[in-house]
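Run log, item B.
One chain of 163 residues. Sequence copied directly from the ordering sheet:
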Amino acid sequence: MKRGKLTDIAGLSSHLGPRQRILGLDVGSKTIGLALSDPALGLATPLSTIRRTKLAADTQALLGVIGEFQVGALVVGLPINMDGSEGPRCQSVRQFVANIEQAVDLPVTLWDERLSTAAVTRELIDADVSRKRRSQVVDKLAASFILQGALDRIQNLERDTGL
């Protein structure tokens, strides 16, 4: 199988076939939150959470989602520090992406996810969601937050360039 390739957000939609979607990932040490775009690339929807085990099992779970939902690209949240530097969490996500690229033939974009989990958690607290329920949904909601940011950027680039 071909390898995936890191792609800039500006060129991501040009790699998609008709009606293909983008899968957003919030990669943590214990879970991977998933969100899915609509085919028009305008709206991100929380999808599910994968409980991380071994790389092979995580990859198989992702491949299942990719096949089921006609995914044509991945947007992976990159946990950049507030000062713009990259720490150990970024290195871990970059290694995950390098491993996944061996198994999927899709373009992959890294997207700055600063404060995504914090923003989602704050919204859930404001909505009076219980701590237990927050822990069940925060990862897929963070993935949706990440993906929506990327989709908004794609829409703005396409509008600005007249594509």
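Observations after the first pass:
- The chain is about 45% helix and 25% strand.
- The longest strand covers residues 44-51.
Flagged for discussion on Thursday.
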